[in-house]
Amino acid sequence: MAAGAKPISREERVARIAKLQRLMADQGVGAMIMESGSSLDYFTGVQWRRSERTTAAVIPARGDIVIVTPAFEEPSVRETLAVGGDVRPWDEHESPFARMVQALRDRGVTSGPVAFEDTTRLFILDGVREAGPAYHAVSGTGLVRACRLIKSPAELALMQTANDVTLAALRHVHTNVRAGMTPGEIAALMDSATVALGGTPEFALVLINEASAYPHGSRQAQTLRDGSVILMDVGCTVHGYQSDISRTWVLGSPTARQRKVWDTVKRGQEIALQTARPGIPVGAIDDAVRAYYEREGWGPGYRLPGLSHRTGHGIGLDGHEPPYLVHGDATPLAPGMCFSDEPGLYIPGEFGIRLEDCWRMTEAGPKLFTPFAKSIDEPI
């Protein structure tokens, strides 16, 4: 299913860097420093883990980028570098921060503001400050968001494929779960189906019985039995882009109470999309769902029993990324933004229901990557 998916092209990454450079130049920022993580991947293609050994990019407002990385990691880092530029290795006894400062100077940035991507760790910021006291650090959050918030057609295609894989794998699991299975066994079934369909498993959270009342589960041992609530929150990646889908059902016959809560959650999902339109604050979506839940006797607000978490989150290269469908987030909703829609309901000591599908905003309104579940009897 994912075999024909096309990765992000070199040309698109070059265009991303050019946009970032224009934004920096407009704002008087000399360069951005960005360590390993999803933003480094987004702009350069470099996919590298974080450790105490720094790998980072220096992206100047003018000129080619510079990648700074440990010398013995250079060949591996080059494997995913998709945009060219200069790679400057550092040996174990040397300072990567001195390399970064020299890269700034070589690109004509001798003083003034340098932006740091917002997940950059403090020791890197401090190291650059010490090596280059003529620079002062500024936040790169707005610059990066201006590039990453709106997804391109290529990004949307990869997210669609990831969601297709996850839904197909969930369908396989739903058909094959049996009484006596444990969460670990069900998760393994999900992961193997995901791999068979060409996706890379990212997470497979399986909450059954009372554990479903806690959004991220419980350490108490749970085993499937007749009447068990099964809540699965699962996702995969395809060329780095993520899916995130939740389905809840009952092994056997649901009770009237389980059916009522399930139907209420589905209505919450529908209200979220009915509220979504270009220009509104994204937090208004959460407000609309929560108002409906309160009319139904849940909450109020974030209190339990009810909806204790936000209605949804942005998604793309990261499973959770801004903006967020949460009260107070004033980010205007715009075409090309992508989110989850997951207004669960949780009853401590009993059970929880979560339904989740991802969607993107268009000029004509929201568009789902996967269709909503039909009913507690037909959840996939």
Offer a few descriptive terms:
6-stranded mixed beta sheet, Creatine Amidinohydrolase, 10 helices, 22% strand, 17 strands, Creatine Amidinohydrolase, Chain A, domain 1, 35% helix, 2 domains, 4-stranded antiparallel beta sheet, 380 residues, alpha+beta
Describe the protein.
This protein is of the alpha+beta class. It folds into 2 domains: 10-148, 3-Layer(aba) Sandwich (Creatine Amidinohydrolase, Chain A, domain 1); 153-368, Creatine Amidinohydrolase (Alpha-Beta Complex). It is built from 10 helices and 17 strands. It has helices at 10-27, 38-44, 74-80, 96-106, 122-131, 141-148, 153-176, 183-196, 256-275, 283-295; strands spanning 31-35, 56-60, 66-70, 86-90, 112-116, 135-139, 200-208, 229-238, 241-242, 245-250, 312-314, 321-325, 338-341, 345-347, 351-353, 357-362, 365-368. The chain has a 6-stranded mixed beta sheet with strand order 4-3-2-1-5-6, sandwiched between helices. Strands 7, 8, 9 and 10 form a 4-stranded antiparallel beta sheet that branches. Strands 13-16-17 form a 3-stranded antiparallel beta sheet, with helices on one face. β14 (345-347) and β15 (351-353) form a beta hairpin. The longest helix has 24 residues, at 153-176. The mean pLDDT is 97.
